[in-house]
Write a structure and sequence with these properties.
Layout: E1 6-15, E2 20-22, H1 23-27, H2 34-41, E3 45-47, H3 55-70, E4 79-83, H4 94-102, E5 108-112, H5 118-132, E6 137-145, H6 155-158, E7 163-173, E8 179-187, E9 195-196, H7 208-212, E10 219-220, H8 222-243, E11 253-256, H9 261-271, H10 282-285, H11 292-302, E12 311-318, E13 322-329
Parallel strand pairs: 4-5, 4-6, 11-12
Antiparallel strand pairs: 1-7, 2-3, 6-7, 8-13, 9-10, 12-13
Helix pairs in contact: 3-4, 8-9
The chain binds oxa(dethia)-CoA (UT7).
Length: 330
């Protein structure tokens, strides 16, 4: 067990369902307009999983592409971590189902439930496994089928969410200066009712009544989440840069949770950061919770905005409430 190792990004991938749900589609379902959605959120369309496409399915597709990029066989993995709030089923962990689909042998496999912060929680856990636990190859996936818990009669929330998965293969490196250089992981359970799904767990198991009361759909206090997210996003980025003595020139890219264009704009404007330092794709994919950061990271790589060896800041916040940051030298 050495603590002189670091962690590198060996590969990345994503899976985005074909089907697009545009603002115009939503106008036919709820009392809203394209103009309202674009000005309040920046979202123009989201991807929606087809029947039969699930959190596990998208996780496996994203994983295959990340493994191919890393030139790694599934049976070389030491651990599979899936961050999700829309697991394939309550039991067992989606990561175990992904492991079986990939034929990844008997490596460790478990899920993280930290909502939109799940991927950032996961990369910090992966870094600790690699740095101090002797793990050599890890697969970290954020995968969500939010359309299955979105209430398409609630105009204040259904406009936000989309489906998808992003995955990274993380590998042990002899260079201790690579990997997670700094992080913050936090939660405030007193804000649990800001975003929640009240039904379907052991407090309110599924009954005809919970179904009639639409308790299996996500409930959200949008304004409260908005204020929380603006503040956290600003504070997390400022804190990460200050603690790592980073100037903005030393940061290749900030990859935030794709929460709302206005939240991202407001935070970076207060920090005096130029928008070209921040990766945003919310206009095309909406908010995909734990999948949003890895989808954005992979797309940023595909577009040449970031690559191995670059320093990035990942920031996320969401249900729990949870919030997290990681400064990562990829
Ligand atoms: O990963 C974390 C997940 N959660 C979030 O990302 C939520 C963060 N919050 C937000 O993104 C914003 O709060 C929303 C986009 C959800 C709402 O935007 P807002 O500017 O905070 O609007 P609001 O909730 O203050 O509502 C303003 C008005 C209300 O009407 P009245 O009461 O002023 O007459 C709402 O009923 O806008 C109305 N409204 C809508 N109107 C047209 C709410 N949703 C819609 C809609 N179309 N889709």
């Amino acid at each position: 067990m050495s603590n002189s190792n670091g962690m590198v990004l060996a590969g990345s991938g994503y899976c985005l369902p074909e089907r697009r749900l545009t603002n115009q589609d939503l106008v036919t379902q709820v009392d809203t307009t394209d103009e309202w959605i674009v000005t309040r959120t920046g979202i123009r369309e989201r991807r929606i999983a087809a029947d039969g496409q699930t959190t596990m399915y998208m996780a496996v597709e994203a994983a295959k592409s990340a493994l191919a990029d890393a030139k790694l066989a599934p049976d070389q993995l030491d651990a599979i971590i899936v961050a999700t709030v829309t697991p394939e089923q309550p039991l067992p962990a989606t990561a175990c189902l992904v492991q079986a689909e990939l034929n990844a042998g008997h490596c460790a496999a478990f899920d993280i439930s930290a909502a939109c912060s799940g991927f950032v929680y996961g990369i910090v856990i992966a870094d600790r496994f690699v740095r101090h636990g002797g793990y050599k190859n890890l697969l970290l996936i954020g995968s969500e089928t939010l359309s299955r818990i979105t209430d398409y009669t609630d105009r204040s929330s259904c406009i936000l969410f989309g489906d998808g998965a992003g995955a990274v293969v993380l590998q042990q490196s002899p260079d201790a200066g690579r990997g997670v250089l700094y992080h913050q992981l936090h939660a405030d359970g007193k804000g649990a009712d800001f975003i929640n799904v009240p039904g379907g767990g052991v407090r309110h198991p599924a009954t005809a009544q919970t179904l009639a009361d639409r308790m299996h759909y996500m409930k959200m206090k949008g304004r409260d989440v908005y204020k929380f997210a603006v503040m956290r996003m600003h504070d997390l980025i400022r804190d990460a840069m200050a603690n790592c003595n980073l100037t903005i020139d030393q940061v290749k890219l900030i990859v935030p949770h794709q929460v709302n264009q206005r939240i991202i704009d407001s935070a970076i404007e207060r920090l005096g950061i130029s928008p070209d330092k921040v990766y945003v794709n919310i206009d095309r994919f909406g908010n995909t919770s734990a999948a949003s950061v890895p989808i954005a990271l992979h797309e940023a790589r595909l577009r040449g905005r970031v690559d191995r060896g670059d320093t990035v800041i990942l920031v996320a916040f969401g249900a729990g409430l949870t919030w997290a940051s990681a400064v990562v030298k990829l």
